[in-house]
Design a protein that fits this description.
637 residues; Immunoglobulin-like; 13-stranded parallel sheet; 3 helices; 51 strands; globular
Length: 637
């Protein structure tokens, strides 16, 4: 099914995104109700004789089955045995009458005892503080709750450590245990050594064998006064067998998945290399690492031509507090990611593992990422497209508050086909710091220098070894270092040549209050036209090579490089409230109009624009002071 009227779905090659959905036809319904007095997994799944667990229904569901899940907390991993057959004959797992259905990969624990046999003071470190007031409790985990998987026995990174640079990376978060502890629904902080509990409230420590957990509550309270949960499963919803297709997951909450650090990419919800999934209206809450995975899981896995991975629809979800990555996908094609809220990603602080982002895709083909809100990414990118991306569009997204993050959007090693970033609002990137700049190393570590001096960063859009990217009608502001930065990666020979950072086009964007520069180009073999610059420091337009670097203003940018012949500077104020998602605009005059880019026919709110338009994502800005709602998800309601 194609919607030819929706021009925000037009991909860079001019073709419309391939919408494959159809109205599903269900010939069978199965009910699950954990609170029903007669619920049993031996039942037939009727409303009067429902299953007790969702997984029981998942073993019985066949193409054309709708699994209706009644409200309640389900502590299990759902592992569908079958997929559907077509868009019309899907298998759907959904909340009954919009009731609150929570699937938790955790178990409630009780009967804590005072912790004994461990020192809260470090031996041989001189005078020690009084710790007599500190109360630490312990619990031995019940083996019956951890059959087949104990996340407290496994560290975050077990699989592929070759990419970690041990000499320059704090390994603590990588080697912390995967198991999490929650108090009244709120997470505790893991400490790597027992004595650290003496200085850290609301924290836990795991013994070496992973069988016993020690906790210290706020105000040294007694665990008997609280609900304590510990994670005991890796995932919430994931087929055991790969390549299942045509599955819908709708309106469910997935919480407490004790996933490991990618790679492999295994999420709280996992398509397990399947295709034609719909994941919509769900909440992903507190996954140890990955929220949703929709790709090949791992670059070490074999790929098979007979299995088309992708065609996944991920929409209207709330993905909150994923430790490393909100949505992950390797070798995905025709993926639609729209109208999601992704916030709090990266709290594990594993950004140097390379896989940390609100959305991290590799080799994405013909995919559309639109109308998403990315908020409060901790030390990681909001969106990272890595290696060989082809004909993808990123449009009408809101990126706000990159906390200690290097950039909001990172496009890496993408060379021979065009991708499009248009009509986005990209705001407030604090930057991440490497104050002990290291000498140049050979090999992969050289790819990830933050800047030439290795000290200051914070970019709206950052490119490494990427050519032919089109960046149009975006608002890029409050970036600690620069709105746009790109660098050549000559030796990354994928698939046949290195990246030159040529033929990238920056057209009709607004750059606002960027710390050092609006644009930093590695060379003059790019295009900048029709851009508007507001509240910029001196020398805010830069070309790095050939050395010495040129730091220019708009006039010399035009004269020496031939750029922005129709660009301008402009006086005004822009402020964004990242909590209520509003933007305050104060301007004395209307923004000058420029010739539109041939690839972009809509604005931020999907209004069709004909003829000339102002730079930036929002049309119709008039003189005055006003506040507008910039939550792009309103367009889908």
């Amino acid at each position: 099914m194609k919607d030819l009227k929706d021009l925000s779905a037009q991909l860079p090659n001019g073709e419309m995104f391939e919408f494959w959905e159809a109205e599903p036809k269900f010939e069978r319904e199965l009910h699950v109700d954990c609170n029903h007095p007669d619920a049993s997994d031996d039942n037939d799944g009727s409303k009067d004789r429902p299953f007790k667990t969702i997984n029981a229904a998942a073993q019985a569901a066949t193409p054309g089955t709708r699994v209706l899940i009644h409200g309640g907390v389900y502590r299990e991993t759902v592992q569908p045995a079958m997929g559907g057959e077509s868009p019309e004959r899907m298998i759907s797992y959904e909340a009954y009458n919009d009731e609150e259905v929570i699937i938790k990969a955790s178990v409630e624990v009780r009967d804590f005892k005072p912790s004994v046999g461990w020192r809260l003071q470090r031996r041989g470190f001189g005078a020690q503080e009084d710790v007599s007031h500190v109360k630490v409790w312990e619990i031995e985990l019940n083996p019956e709750d951890f059959k087949g998987y104990n996340p407290f026995c496994a560290v975050n990174v077990l699989h592929d450590r070759i990419y970690l640079e041990y000499g320059r990376v704090d390994m603590t978060p990588y080697l912390n245990r995967r198991g999490m502890v929650f108090v009244d629904g709120k997470p505790m902080k893991q400490v790597p050594l027992y004595y650290m509990l003496s200085s850290t409230e609301n924290a836990y420590w795991v013994e070496a064998n992973g069988q016993k957990v020690h906790i210290r509550l706020e105000n040294d309270d007694d665990p008997a006064n609280h609900v304590i949960e510990v994670t005991n499963r890796e995932q919430c919803f994931a087929p055991k067998e790969p390549f299942l297709s045509y599955i819908r997951v709708k309106g469910l909450t997935m919480a407490h998945a004790a996933t490991g650090a990618p790679v492999p990419q295994r999420g709280a919800i996992s398509c397990n290399r399947g295709h034609h999934w719909i994941i919509e209206d769900c909440v992903i809450d507190w996954s140890n690492t990955v929220g949703i995975d929709c790709g090949n899981e791992c670059w070490h896995r074999e790929t098979y031509e007979e299995h088309e991975i992708g065609y996944t629809v991920i929409r209207r979800n709330i993905i909150r507090d994923a430790g490393v990555c909100g949505i992950a996908g390797l070798w995905v094609s025709n993926v639609l990611i729209e109208d999601n809220l992704i916030e709090g990603t990266g709290w594990q602080r594993m950004e140097l593992s390379w896989e940390a982002a609100g959305i991290k895709l590799h080799n994405a083909q013909n995919s559309l990422i639109r109308r998403n809100v990315f908020r409060k990414c901790y030390g990681c990118d909001a969106l990272w497209l890595d290696v060989g991306n082809d004909n993808c569009r990123i449009t009408s997204n809101l990126f706000v508050d990159g906390i200690n993050s290097r950039e909001h959007i990172f496009i890496e090693c993408t060379k021979d086909t065009e991708n499009l970033i248009d009509n986005n609002i990209i705001w407030n990137v604090e930057g991440r710091y490497n104050k002990d700049a290291l000498p140049e190393e050979r090999g992969s570590s050289g790819w990830y220098k933050t800047t030439e001096d290795g000290i200051k960063n914070g970019y709206g859009i950052y490119l490494e070894g990427t050519d032919r990217l089109r960046i149009v009608n975006n608002l890029i502001g409050n970036c600690h270092k620069a709105g746009f930065f790109s660098r050549v990666v000559a030796f990354r020979l994928y698939p046949k040549r290195g990246g030159t950072c040529r033929d990238n086009k920056l057209i009709n964007n607004i750059f606002y209050n960027c710390g050092d520069a609006a644009i930093i180009l590695p060379n003059q073999y790019n295009t900048a036209e029709g851009n508007t610059y507001m509240k910029m420091p001196p020398g805010y337009l830069r070309v790095m090579y050939p050395e010495p670097e040129m730091c220019l203003d708009l006039e010399t940018w035009r004269e020496f490089c031939g750029f922005d012949l129709n660009g301008c500077t402009f006086d005004g104020e822009i402020n964004i409230n990242s909590e209520d998602l509003t933007m305050e605009i104060i301007v004395k005059d209307g923004l000058p109009e420029v010739a539109p880019d041939e690839k972009v026919k809509t604005d931020y709110f999907n209004n069709v624009v004909t003829g000339k338009r102002p730079a930036g994502p929002i049309t119709g800005i008039k003189p005055g002071r006003y506040v507008i709602n910039i939550d792009p998800r309103v367009l889908s309601k």
